[in-house]
Amino acid sequence: MMARSLQKHVVIAGRVNAGKSTLFNSIMGSDVAIVSEERGTTTDAVRKSIEVPVLGPVVFIDTAGFDDDTALSEERLKKTRTEFNKADAFIYTLDNGDEAILSELAKYNKPVIKVIMAIDRDVSYDYGDAIVYRDHSSRDEIFTELKKVLNTEEESLLDGIVDGKATIVMVMPQDAAAPKGRLIKAQVEALREALDKGMTSIVVGDERLEEVRDRFTDIDLVICDSRVFKKVYDVFGKTTKVTSFSVLFSKMKGDIDYFIESAKKFDDFKGDEKILIAEACTHPPINEDIGTVKIPAMLKKRFGDGLEFTFTRADDFENIEDYDMIIHCGACMFNRAHVMSRVRQAKEKGVAMTNYGVTIAYLQNILDKISL
Prior knowledge:
The chain contains twelve helices and 14 strands. The chain is α/β, with parallel strands linked by helices and 372 residues long.
């Protein structure tokens, strides 16, 4: 199945006991979420993918309800609002007194499909444009609405850079920073797309670059790990286009123009700035980790030891107004809606936000030379 980070995300929201988990289970066709008359049964978000005609696999997310009066209500709602940042669309289960919650959802500028759950209750009030969900067959009405509001265009790493006949060299260093026995997700996604589009891929480490350059004379693009950006550019930059996996993902998932504009603000650094380095993955950092080790070392070499770094992972993205710069990973584990929600927050708070690959290209003076 398509990687979850490339699937559309639909968040089910509503008040406590408005039928969210019942709806979720009906859409899934199985009892995935716990359903109970007890208030606040759903604590952590429950997510599962299902194939939707035309849209392909879609992630549905059941969340904790609003107006929860249990002891952990604030923590549960905090997690619910985190899920809102990942939504491509909302399904809202109507109850009474929904105006404030619907107003909050409207701030995310995402489609909202309203549903009244009538599986286990009588519906006697005016439901306007809401779907009345009476049984399992009603889910087709939801699927029809989702097909109207969700963008069905597939995300692409390579469109606009090379065509279907391209020959691509992918440089994947297998040093201590590489995961043992597997490729990182960004590399897998690039290989998968190139294969699907009939492109020719040549996969190498970073030890035989000159040999590959001289042997293959019809290379259209070189994609590398960002930590060897300059080394790869010095070998291939005069003859072909060069970019990195991180840059490609930042373009597909985020706002590449804002990332480049933000990177130029390094020119104004005085050496005492506060920098947030945000990593989507939850893997523990290792000795040669690009986010926690290599990028801070490069920045300190350029601007001095007075820089202050904070490192976050996964959904932790708070108090960003305290920082002068946010440097985000390629976010191959996040969907586009999630990354763009972070870009929106950064713009609203006037905080510069860029990306690992863009930062490294800037620090190595090749940002204006790489392919985007």
